[in-house]
Amino acid sequence: MTNADQSRQRPSSHPFRRLWPVLKWLMFALVIAFVGRRAWLLWREGDVGSVTVQWPWLLAAFGLYGIGWLPSVLYWHQLIHRFGGTSGRWDVAHAYFAGHLGKYIPGKASVLLIRAGMLAERGCRPGTAALTSTYETLTYMGVGLAVGLALAPVVWRQIVVELPAVIRPVFERPLVFGAVVVVVCVVLVPGVAKILGLIARRLTPPIVSIGEVEMDAARIGTESQPTVSEIEIPASFLLGWSFAFVATWLIHGLSLGCTLRAVGVEASLSEWLVWTGDIWSASFVGFIAVFAPGGLGVREAALIELLKSQPRISPSQAVAASVLLRGTWMAAEILMTLALGCVTRRVSNLKSQI
Predict the structure, then answer these.
(1) Distance between CA atoms of 350 and 295, rounded to whole angstroms?
(2) Backbone angles phi, psi at 78, to 5 degrees
(3) Structural domain range at position 174
């Protein structure tokens, strides 16, 4: 393609590129305003006196959230080493949690850019870090989709009466439905492994190294091939780690349960699966809301509606639990990033002295 052809094509894309950030922030502002108003009305509508913050339970929610990400960190570390990286576990963990904070930064693929940049001089090429990070996210959300589908009869039992007659009997047998979902997912793992590899390559932006700065190639107007041309993960490897990711969702569901106890809800472990399904549903809605940084506002709106529909949770408690959960999880991400930063520096100093 000649320079003249390129110059004729560029202007057609410029208006959309300039308009999209404005539309994105407009949608985000509208969502925040709507969710804020809705939360305030529910807060006033409910029994505000029933909300009593109990810090030990909130601390437990804080710890469980951090522990829940352990499979993701180890999985990403394994992926990096499968594609020639040599990054240590502490460096990978530090980059992983720092990348979590990147979801609140406006911009294109901030999470991937942060993780790739932090591992660039820690034994992993930027393209490898970005591609494997994308694959890890897809695996995490894919397992969550299976978990959410298996738990659908439990989480959405209050709307069974509104379901079509053909589907209603299936939802009335949650154990059978969940078992069928698990079997189908296991059978589909080989095909899913290939599909995830294709999607990961398509979603990962080209990353190039310029000195010590990692930049998105699209931003600097250059073309760059991904460091890893293809990502093929054995089905057995993906299946084994999928069960580990089920534990992640269950632990994060338990974190929600602790948050509910923290705001005065008389929750019991018998509702653990309901909490897990609630977390998946709200996280998924926030994940697909690309205009909201970190799903902010969108996830809370979904979680409030799910929680307040449960008999023992008042509207005020639903609002308080959703807001506190966001704050607790964000605090955990910040403190884990800072703590791991200290650990990685100490490890580096010890290695340099040897």
Answers:
(1) 39
(2) -65, -40
(3) 52-349
